[in-house]
Amino acid sequence: MFKHDSTTATTVEIVLDGQTIAVPGEMSVAAALLAVGKIISRISPTSKKPCSPHCLMGVCFECLMEIDGIRRQACMTPVKQGMIINRHLEEGEAGVGVGVAAGVGVEVGGQS
Ligand code: FES
């Protein structure tokens, strides 16, 4: 589905759901995860079904995930070495309200 041009890319290591993985650098978290086949971003709080990033430009919010302790749009967040990302797929935890209730901050838009 997605192919990555490995001739120009750097690789960074991130911790995804407690597991260290290597992903392409110099792109958004959402794009980096899609590039390595991690297509599920969260579980819908209403349908309880898995969601994947749709727009990749900050509109749909389907890519919300906990990135370094803050619920962020993965498509608007540049991937960086050592990031800790939790999707909470096993808990069905997703969405802004649940993130706030669990003590996880929410950030909308890009990371500066
Ligand atoms: S994929 Fe739509 S907001 Fe991130």
Task: Describe what is shown at a glance.
With 112 residues, this protein is of the alpha/beta class.
Write the layout of secondary structure elements.
Layout (H helix, E strand, L loop, with lengths): L10 E6 L2 E6 L4 H7 L6 E2 L6 E2 L12 E4 L2 E4 L10 E3 L8 H7 L3 E2 L6
FE2/S2 (inorganic) cluster binds next to loops.
Task: Please tell me about this protein's structure.
- This protein is an alpha/beta fold and 112 residues long.
- It has a domain at 11-88: Ubiquitin-like (UB roll) (Roll), CATH 3.10.20.
- It has helices spanning 29-35, 95-101, and strands spanning 11-16, 19-24, 42-43, 50-51, 64-67, 70-73, 84-86, 105-106.
- The strands form two sheets. A six-stranded mixed sheet has the order 2-1-7-5-6-8, sandwiched between helices. A two-stranded antiparallel sheet has the order 3-4.
- Strand 1 (11-16) and strand 2 (19-24) form a beta hairpin.
- The longest helix has 7 residues, at 29-35.
- Mean pLDDT is 84; it is low at 93-104.
- The structure holds FE2/S2 (inorganic) cluster.
- The site of FE2/S2 (inorganic) cluster has 13 residues, from loops.
